[in-house]
Design a protein that fits this description.
Blueprint: H1 4-21, H2 25-92, H3 96-112, H4 118-125, H5 142-164, H6 166-174, H7 186-204, H8 213-233, H9 237-242, H10 244-255
Helix pairs in contact: 2-7, 3-10, 5-7, 7-8, 7-10
Length: about 260
């Protein structure tokens, strides 16, 4: 038989057991559901944070990659211009072409202030070409010089195509390429074709290559026609102004040819 104390303890234990120890299936389900929901929320939040972090990292990586590519493009453009100038310096000696350009500009100003006629041709012929033996022209073969002309024309056409593509230039500008103005390759476009013309006209007036005169004449005429057509198609005043020295060079070289040429 149970004593009073044992009965009291048993009743108390049963009561506690009924109220706290035993959990109904529905309560158990609700508690597990709440725990699962909390875990899901925490997991989703963590995943979202990780995704945002990855996105920021990818954006920074892409930005750095884009800037790196723009820097490479800028370096390539600078190197291209330096190569063009190097070709000119090697063949004609440094500063010779610059002096020639200044001379021809003086001729153009002089012609603008004189009457049109034979006296102008006489005036032009008083200016001797700045041909000297300091450059490497005399030591280079015809094929070598023509190969350099081809390379210069290829560089010119690349720059011309780029300068005509306003959409591409706008995209590069918005991406931060080359500062506050739309990028252009005007220096490459004009310097390359000017150097090519200097080589061709020098070959055409060289008695050593008289057997190649027909070939040179065709190349010169084709290139001149192409350049004039391109110049007439230009809409930008700055772009046309960049061609001034090239046009003066061309017209002066043509006027200095003898009647047979």
């Amino acid at each position: 038989m149970l004593t009073i104390n044992e009965t009291t303890i048993l009743n108390h234990t049963n009561s506690s057991f009924d109220q706290t120890a035993v959990e109904s299936p529905s309560s158990q389900h609700n508690r597990m559901t709440r725990a699962g929901s909390s875990s899901s929320v925490n997991s989703a939040t963590s995943d979202q944070q990780e995704s945002n972090s990855n996105n920021r990292y990818n954006e920074r990586t892409k930005t750095n990659s884009d800037l790196f590519q723009l820097q490479i493009l800028s370096i390539k453009c600078i190197v291209q211009i330096e190569l063009i100038q190097t070709i000119d310096n090697i063949i004609f000696y440094p500063s010779t072409s610059k002096k020639e350009d200044l001379q021809y500009i003086s001729i153009a100003h002089a012609l603008a202030s004189t009457s049109i006629g034979q006296e102008n041709l006489t005036y032009i012929n008083h200016f001797d070409d700045l041909h000297n033996d300091l450059g490497m022209y005399a030591y280079m073969s015809f094929d070598q010089l023509i190969l350099l002309v081809d390379c210069l024309i290829e560089s010119h056409m690349f720059a011309r195509t780029f300068n005509s593509n306003n959409e591409q230039r706008n995209l590069l500008w918005k991406a931060g390429y080359r500062g506050k103005a739309k990028p252009n390759l005007l220096t490459q476009e004009t310097n390359s074709i000017a150097c090519a013309f200097r080589i061709l006209f020098r070959l055409y007036s060289d008695q050593k290559h008289i057997n190649s005169n027909d070939l040179l004449k065709r190349r010169i005429l084709k290139l001149i026609r192409d350049c004039f057509e391109y110049y007439l198609s230009l809409q930008s005043e700055n772009h046309r102004d960049a061609w001034t020295s090239v046009l003066i060079l061309l017209l002066t070289k043509l006027l200095k040819l003898n009647e047979e040429q």
